[in-house]
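Slide 14.
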Amino acid sequence: MQIQVRCGCGEAECPEWAVVEVQGVLQPQPCFSGRIQGLHIGRLCSTSSSPSSKGAYTFTVGYHELAGTRVTLKKPLLVMRKKKKNDGQGGPAAVELEVIGVIRHKILFKDRPKALISKPVVKEKKTLPAAATPSAVSPTS
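Slide 15: predicted structure.
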């Protein structure tokens, strides 16, 4: 069987995708029970000023923060969508793969996560100005 690969956007204009590589396992809570499509995992932020530079990234998942870097892949990968084409004669459908993106980089998080623990809020004592305190006020006769 022959599978055709089609890219309508051209080599220079294909959308850039990236792979996020995390060491370890991300476990969703039991209430999701296998329904992870569209699940919000965390927040990915770039800490560098320009997207083309080899920048640093942070990935916050719950109360954990991971620090990562952008790494260029040795061989680029294609992101494809499978399409079936019917020839209209009732025969077997031909399969065509459409290129929807190119992956040239991955964001690698190889260190252990840092725990994000907030400090308790310290309440300040309210003090009265010196003129309003009873000892500073002189009795009048």
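Speaker note: The radius of gyration is 29 Å.
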